[in-house]
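Retro notes (design track)

What went well: tokenization of the new backbones is finally stable.
What didn't: we kept losing track of which sequence belonged to which structure.
Fix going forward: every design gets posted as structure first, then sequence, in one message. First example under the new rule, 582 residues:
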């Protein structure tokens, strides 16, 4: 027999069966092997030296030397290998429609953007028109109606990170009540629950709300309980920007606990903080409330960003009553002298009955970041105090005038929090990490306004400042907070850990140099220290540069009707929520 024919037969046998002609297992060929790194598997345990192998979209080896060879092999000597990082509160809804790379987050190792504080669906015809009218820097067509359609659009157009979303209680409310301060009828509330149900079966992770902003702030607790209960029977969680982070923070945390207990589902507090110097001492009481609830069996967690300033609009400087009916009705009221006089009196109250971030930050602690009106953009980077002084008016008058002149909420940063509290909160075992910002790039339309530096540096700041420099927590604990913990909170299957069979969302970075560079003066600066990122096994970042690969997917919640065990149940008790934190 011809020797070459024997060799060819042996090769075919090896390829098909994985065995050589002599019966020994042939060394496997992997798509990718990451060699010689320090592996942090997401569990919080210390790292181990070894390799990670990827085949298709899955991890196939974690630990010691991977057998065989890789079609692509990457040397991770001196580097950390970790699960891809999860951003528990992303506002990348608009930015990913403009630039699907999500570069400011990708450069920090983020592989999943969790959105939905105010969700992109479901939308009525009038809501679509208002969304189009209110667009600021980014402009795009609104050619979807449901939340699922929006997320599918992102996946189809090509994005680098994975995306997931909650459905917004405020978005659902607006479908039936507009932006008015009124309670739903029993029939309307049932219809609202129906929209939550629909969104959950389309893949939403749960229901969320932002209770210091109109119209979400108009919702009373029983309304929220009803929507959270519908989410819970669909296997989802309730997650909220709580009703107060300042004077009534403890009462707001208790409301969140009550909603979790009533619905039977987990709850999470968005961007944990205590706003305003007079409230910084309340942290012990807040932690005690959460710890006691957890000890009693209520699943409640929180997330946070790594800065002492928040960022939102000047709507957070005004009471809800003036915003009744939405942006256009709000601005129309501001022209009325009697309304203006009443408004200024309330805005000057140091402890108003509503949540005032302006009172917590003060005029000198309110930094202007973005305008819709190009003529106002020279004010970007100035404080409210500076603008008021230059115009010869009070800060309260300046706030009103700026909203009128811009025709928008006006983007600002509020300096609110204590650095000591930030460190204490980071060390809490039930706190994970969220940027509360978009995922952008230092180019194009994104340069038309400024931004909070958390858009570019939130994770890198955690790993550089709070882990390496200040040793607030260990690196393995920080990685747990970025991976396995949020994945468990969200009940995500096969994500958040380096485990064979899990999706190959992997980040490779240098713990010795990872660093944020974004500041409030110069925020649009990319972080450094992350070398490579794989999303679903596809290399989205290579040697620190984006590949532009459309690696991201729509990550659906467990009630998704396309899943084998998907769909909503008769009761939340039919779902099993595993313990997720120590």
């Amino acid at each position: 027999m011809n020797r070459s024919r024997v060799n060819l037969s042996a090769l075919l046998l090896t390829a098909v069966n994985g065995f050589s002609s002599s019966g020994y297992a042939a060394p496997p060929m992997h798509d990718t092997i990451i060699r010689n790194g320090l592996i942090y598997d997401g569990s919080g345990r210390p790292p181990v030296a070894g390799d990670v192998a990827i085949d298709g979209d899955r991890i196939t080896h974690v630990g010691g030397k991977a057998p065989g060879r890789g079609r692509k092999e990457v040397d991770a000597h001196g580097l950390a290998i970790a699960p891809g990082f999860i951003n528990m509160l992303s506002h990348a809804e608009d930015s990913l429609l403009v630039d699907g790379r999500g570069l400011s987050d990708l450069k920090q190792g983020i592989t999943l953007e969790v959105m939905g504080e105010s969700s992109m669906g479901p939308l009525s015809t009038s809501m679509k028109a208002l969304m189009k009218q209110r667009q600021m820097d980014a402009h795009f067509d609104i050619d979807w109606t449901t939340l699922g359609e929006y997320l599918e659009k992102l996946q189809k157009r090509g994005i680098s990170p994975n995306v997931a979303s909650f459905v917004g209680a405020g978005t659902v409310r607006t479908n039936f009540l507009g932006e008015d301060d009124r309670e739903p009828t029993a029939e309307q509330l049932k219809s609202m629950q129906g929209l939550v149900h629909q969104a959950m079966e389309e893949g939403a992770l749960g229901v969320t709300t932002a209770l210091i902003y109109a119209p979400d702030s108009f919702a009373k607790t029983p309304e929220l309980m009803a929507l959270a209960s519908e989410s819970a029977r669909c296997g989802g969680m309730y997650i909220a920007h709580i009703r107060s982070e300042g004077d009534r923070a403890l009462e707001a945390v208790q409301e969140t606990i009550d909603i979790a207990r009533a619905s039977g589902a987990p709850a999470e507090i968005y961007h944990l903080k205590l706003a305003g110097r007079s409230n910084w001492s309340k942290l012990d009481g807040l932690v005690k409330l959460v710890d006691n609830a957890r000890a009693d069996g209520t699943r409640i967690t929180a997330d946070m960003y790594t800065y002492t300033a928040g960022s939102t609009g000047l709507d957070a400087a005004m009471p809800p009553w003036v915003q009744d009916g939405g942006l256009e009705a709000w601005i129309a009221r501001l022209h009325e002298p009697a309304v203006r006089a009443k408004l200024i009196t309330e805005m000057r109250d140091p402890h108003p009955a509503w949540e005032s971030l302006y009172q917590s930050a003060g005029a000198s602690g309110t930094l202007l970041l973005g305008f819709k009106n190009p003529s106002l953009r020279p004010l970007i980077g100035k404080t409210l105090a500076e603008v008021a002084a230059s115009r010869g008016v009070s800060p309260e008058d300046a706030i009103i005038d700026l909203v009128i002149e811009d025709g928008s909420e006006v983007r600002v940063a509020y300096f609110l929090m204590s650095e000591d509290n930030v460190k204490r909160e980071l060390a809490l075992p039930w706190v994970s990490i969220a940027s509360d910002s978009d995922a952008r790039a230092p180019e194009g339309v994104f340069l038309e306004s400024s931004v909070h530096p958390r858009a570019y540096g939130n994770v890198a700041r955690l790993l550089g400042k709070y882990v390496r420099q200040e040793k607030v927590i260990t690196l393995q604990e920080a990685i747990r907070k970025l991976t396995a913990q949020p994945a468990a909170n969200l009940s995500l299957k096969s994500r958040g850990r380096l485990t064979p069979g899990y999706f190959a969302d992997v980040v490779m970075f240098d713990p010795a140099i990872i660093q944020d560079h974004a500041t409030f003066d110069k925020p649009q600066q990319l972080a450094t220290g992350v070398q490579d990122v794989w999303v679903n096994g596809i290399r989205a970042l290579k040697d620190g540069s984006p590949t532009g690969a459309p690696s991201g997917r729509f990550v659906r919640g467990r009630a998704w009707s396309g899943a084998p065990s998907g769909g909503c149940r008769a009761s939340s008790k039919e779902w099993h929520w595993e313990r997720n934190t120590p």
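Added context from the reviewer: Residues 167 and 207 are 5 Å apart (CA to CA).
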